[in-house]
Amino acid sequence: GSSWNNCDFETSLCKALPEFNLQPGWIRRNGQSGMGPPYSDHNGNESAYFLSLSSEMQSYSAALRTKVFLPTDEEHLCQIRFHYWVSQMSGTFMVGLQKHSEDTVTNIWQVSGEPRKQWNVNTITINSTEKYEV
């Protein structure tokens, strides 16, 4: 059976992103916060919340870590679907996979800054025979 965990950041950081895993630099804001684009979420809602890197962080990197997910198999695939906006031409948005037997994070997807000022959407399917974080 498929179970979806939907995360919209309206009230909190959702079950997938524990509060303490929010590194400095990430803020929860909406399009009315006066911090520049995007001025709405991917649905065009100006008051809806999303996560954003603060402008002071422009020359640094900051990560978001998910909770620990259980191993996947034929019945239990893991798909992560997310909306993203890369505003800096020099910016790179990466998704990494860390299996619990490994110390390193393996980069499984990335996109670099595009001049198109718009929300994009992507879905990643994850396979792991052991517990993992994204």
Automatic annotation (TrEMBL):
Q: Name one Pfam family in it.
A: MAM
Listed under GO cellular component are: membrane
Q: Which PROSITE patterns match?
A: MAM_2
Q: Taking every annotated instance into account, which residue ranges of this chain make up the domain MAM?
A: 5-134
What is the name of this protein? Answer: MALR1 protein
Q: Which species is listed as the source?
A: Pycnonotus jocosus (Red-whiskered bulbul)
